Amino acid sequence: MPRPGALPVASVQAQAARDKPLSSAAAVDLARRALAEVAAADAVGDHVAASYDAERLVTHLFDCAMPGYRGWRWAVTLSRPPRSRTATVCEVGLLPGEEALLAPAWVPWADRLRPEDLAAAGRAPGSTDSDTDWSAEGAGSGEVPWRWRR
To answer: Whole-prediction pTM value?
Structure first.
């Protein structure tokens, strides 16, 4: 499955180009102005593609020029009402392209725990011992009220 910021195939780009109010130079300028509200001017690169999403709904993709975001693309989705010639901004976001560096899939803590992690402490982190006392010893005496005793 392609990533959300991947470049659309030629047929999808051609379909987007058929909707002139959403794919014209004025629409690209509108998308760039929308990006100027959420990103610095030097963070937005060249317009790379327009993707047809649905009837009267086109997403414009711009390269992201921010350091550390190689392969990411700014996306601006434009729409227009039926029989209207005026484009409206629906959504602005930053999406990962095919070359974007992403974090690995999340793994639950219990599955990440390795045997050597247990060997260092002698027990699993977060487990409770029956001899741990969390009582409020010394409360009201000016001392630190919570003491941890073994």
So the answer is: 0.69
